[in-house]
Design a protein that fits this description.
It is built from seven helices and five strands. With 176 residues, it is an alpha/beta fold. The chain starts with a helix and ends in a 35-residue tail after the last helix.
Length: 176
């Protein structure tokens, strides 16, 4: 769904700069999915890439400005020395996968909040159920909010055609 939203905004000319924040282990999967399904060429941005790019650039040039569509780890971006140059870029779309990690007041939340503050479009993704904390839920829903309407897409087991009743099979095992 996030890829559909991003590709549609880009196709309509409503966006050109995309930043995907996700766990480090999902960066390559995001890159593959965006490239194969939506023809969106993205760059995986990490410490090694930034160092290589900075070595080739004149002093004072922000290496993040060279990547119109970037994928980075949230834990990398939240670092103070990284967050400043990343947040100085006007991202049109910020997609945060596993957004529940930025729900509570933390350095992750602060980083996502600063990146989403100036973004025209923010997409927060999570498959983790709400933990019941009203404060954490409000903090999550407030990311990127500018008084506009929050759209929530939620799919239940019933909507997916999955039985709502759990089936438990009990069997005895005799240790030997």
């Amino acid at each position: 769904q996030a890829g559909l939203i991003a590709s549609e905004l880009i196709a309509r000319g409503a966006a050109s700069r995309l930043l995907v924040l996700c766990p480090a282990g999902l960066r390559e999967q995001w890159q593959t999915e965006l490239a194969t399904r939506f023809h969106l060429p993205t760059a995986l941005v990490d410490m090694a890439r930034i160092r290589r790019t900075q070595a080739e650039l004149p002093p004072g040039v922000n290496p993040w400005a060279l990547e119109p569509m970037a994928i980075a780890s949230l834990d990398y971006v939240k670092r103070a020395e990284v967050l400043l140059p990343v947040s100085s870029i006007p991202w049109d779309i910020v997609i945060v996968d596993e957004a529940h990690h930025a729900a509570s007041r933390s350095d992750r939340h602060a980083a996502v909040a600063s990146l989403c503050e100036a973004a025209s479009h923010v997409v927060l993704l999570t498959a983790t159920p709400h933990n019941g904390s009203t404060e954490a839920y409000a903090a999550l829903c407030g990311l990127g909010a500018h008084g506009d309407e929050l759209l929530i897409f939620r799919r239940t087991r019933h909507e997916l055609g999955i039985d709502r009743v759990r089936r438990v099979h009990r069997f005895s095992v005799r240790p030997n």
